[in-house]
Amino acid sequence: MPEESFNWAGVGFKVDQDFLDRFNAAQAAYLGSPQMMVPVAEYGYSDAMLPGDKTTEWVCANR
Question: Residue 13 in contact with residue 20, Cβ under 8 Å?
Fold first, then answer.
C-alpha cells in the first residue's frame, strides 16, 4: 500500500513514564500478533497494513 493511503492513529496519556513504557511494550507485543491478526483478517487487514518501523516521531514529522 502506498504510505499516503495509511491512516495513522495516536493515543495520548497524562501519566508517568512507567505507565507509558508499559503501554508501549504491550502495544508492540499485540500489533501483528495472531491475537490481533486473526480477528481482523476477515476485514481484509494484513501484515502490509502494520506500521512496520514507523514511530510516532516519524508520523508527526511526515504528516
Answer: yes
